[in-house]
Each structure stands twice: as structure tokens, then as C-alpha cells.
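Supplementary Note 2. Why include the ligand at all?

Several targets in our set were suspected to adopt different conformations when bound, so apo predictions alone were not considered sufficient. For every target with a known small-molecule partner we therefore ran a joint prediction. The input for 2-oxoglutaric acid is given below.
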Amino acid sequence: MSTTTLVETDDVHTSSRPKSSHAAFTSIPILDLSLLDSLAGKRQFLSQLREALVVVGFFYFSNIDRWLPPSVQHTFVSKAKELCNLPLEKKLEIDMMNSKHFLGYSQMGKERTAREVDYREMFDFLSPVPAPGPDEPVYMNVQGPNQQWPDEKEVQGFRHALETYLAAVGKLGETMTILVAEALDLEATALMRFFGSPPRNKVSLLKYPEPPVAPPDDDDDDDFQGVGSHKDGGFLTYLLQATPHHGLEAQNKSGIWIPVPPIPNTLVVNVGRSLESITGGVCTATTHRVNLSARKFLDGNGYPLGPRFSFPVFQTLKMDLTSEEMASLKLPKHIRDLAADGERVDSDAEAYFEKYHLESPGVGIFTARLTSHPEVGRRWYPGIVEEILKGQAEFATCDSFSGESACWRKPVCKTK
Ligand SMILES: O=C(O)CCC(=O)C(=O)O
Ligand SMILES: [Fe+2]
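The joint prediction is reproduced in C-alpha cell form.
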């Protein structure tokens, strides 16, 4: 990675786990999108991209303006913040509880990751995708139209700003399906069949409010879970960190947490479980979290920064790909050999979700939604959610879990 710019990390938190003997990343690479403007630059970019996908699973894109014009970014960020800062009762008008597709507003205290409550609130919106038909598997409800929009009078221009931003990230995502294929020495079009038509991209508007307690003067500034350790479910995630707060961290293969600080005019990109699956583990779905403390809400001079805002777009595969389809990608041998077979990877993400994600992207994402938003799950999928939560709890407390808690899919399984 000699030609790649690196973010230095002087703030590494060591977990109590033993280090594995394999190389683990200690910094997050920065890939310059303007390299794509020349043939020689593109070659350099693809080689950096390959290394970033395989070794780190996290990287920054710099020079993003061509893809996301500053006016599109700024309008989106300002409208998104405006929405997130409305009074609670206004936000509850588009409560996620009303949506069987898990879209809309999830208030503080309602979301859980790794069975712990996250310290954040969110709005979720999807790119335009139709709702599933009555004969489709229940998990296909992870997609459907956005039926809930904020009142135009409350945040004027919000919908237009969000749709414009999401479409622009979607275009970058389409290009990434080609660049990832090329970085893995595949035909440019090799990954296209894994995506739905229209493609499914979800944007989350995340607000991490300031904690109520003032930061202490001494060193016992307790950490708390903004969002708990997890892997994203999709292909790639494109994250705009919209405030200067530190807190986002990626976990390397030795279990050490590496900071991913905000860098102005960049996007953070990370690999999701689906990309890891279709590449047989060559691309790494890296565990990450947002680890906060009262002090992280102050700038270098001790002035309050306000809430932390962050806006990820999750680019996902076709929800109903089968496990056979997911295993059908033929990678060249020299690329397959990059997967570190048998390598020990320390991860604090819940292994419980792995089997669901291997089954199909939709099953994996639906399961994750049910455990993250159990109240929405209880409203729309009462029988299923209890089984999944029970399975999750058993998995967390049992070393030799072999239970099959997926019987909720049997009535809708297409192969039966
Ligand atoms: O807030 C962030 O910066 C990251 C959020 C995240 O990882 C997620 O929502 O999946
Ligand atoms: Fe994430």
C-alpha cells in the first residue's frame, strides 16, 4: 500500500483479546477518486482498491465532488439536520412503528445492536423499490416504498434534497460495482447480476445527541455505545460523517479498534457481509462501532460540538438471491488465494447473523432489522421476532449453539 495515503492512528484502544499472528491493519487508506481520470491513475486506483477491500474492508474516498457535487451534499446535510432537530412529536408523525418495511423515524432508546440499546436516533429512507407481492417471502418486506415523508411545511425541500443525494450516491455505487469487479480481475460486468433492478440503496440519517452529563475534568470519561459492534449487511456502505466528532472505529483482525475520524470532503466506504459472501471471503466485512464519551462532544478548545450527525447509504444486493447464486461467482485463482483461509479473526460483531446472511441478503437483513428494531418487529411480525430474539439470546449465551430457529421461513420457502 505504498502509494496510498494513510491516516495515522495514535488513539488505538486495545481489546483484551490476544493478538493474532497475522498482519492486521493499523490505519485506514485514502483512495483518490480523481485517479480515475487517467488510465495510469485508474490502474493505481484499482490496485489500492484491491488491497483496501482485502486487507482493511474500510477506506476513505477523497475528491468526491465530481460524484457528489458540494451543493447536493450541503443541501442534503442541512435538510437532514433540520429534520433530525425537529421536536419529538413532529418526528413521531413518521414513526418507524407505522412501517412494515422498517422505514421512518426510530426514536432514541428503541434501537439495539448486539442486544444493547444504542445511543442514537434515526430516520431510514429507501431508494424507489416496489413492495413485495403477496406470494413473495416475508423477508422481502425489507423493501418497499417510502410511504412516510416529513411535512413539506416543516422542512421545506427535504424530500428533493434526500432523493437527489441518494440518486447521486446510487450512481457512484453503480460505478463501484464495475470498479470492484475490475479490482478483483473480473470482467467489468461480472457483479451486475447480483443487483436488483431497480437497485436497493438505503439512507440512514443518524443523530447521536449530546449526553446529558458534562464531561468530567479527570480521566474517567466513560465510553458508551453510540452504535454497538456490527458488520454491515450489504455490498458497500458510503458514509458521510457530517460533524467533527470522533467515535467511529473499525476493528482489525487482531481485535484492535482503529479510529476512523471524520476527514472533510471524504466519504468513508466499508465492505458489507454480502460482498464478503459473494467473494468467498476475499473482501473483508470489517466490524465497526461508534464509541462515544462526553469528551468527544467537545472540540479541542472545550467548546460543545452539539450532536454527532452521520449519514450512511447502504448499497445492497438483490434481496432474494439464493445461497447457490451467492456462491456462483468464479474468481481467478490468484484472487481466491488472497482470502486468508483459516486465519483467526477477532470480531466483536455477533456471529449469530452469519448463517442468515449466507442464506440470502434479504434473510440476513430482515433478521438484523428484527433484532435492531424489536418493537417494529412485534407490531408486524410478532411470531417471527420472538423466535429470532430467542435464537439471538441463546446464541449469545451458549458456546455450542446448534439450534435451528429459522422455522419462520418454512411456509414461504420457494424450494419447498
Ligand atoms: O454513525 C456512524 O458513523 C456509523 C453508523 C454505522 O455503522 C451504521 O449505522 O451501520
Ligand atoms: Fe455500520
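Residues 204, 206, 227, 232, 239, 241, 248, 288, 290, 310, 312 surround 2-oxoglutaric acid (ligand 1) (CB under 6 Å). The domain at 5-352 is CATH 2.60.120.330 (Jelly Rolls). Comparable summaries for the other entries are listed in the accompanying table.
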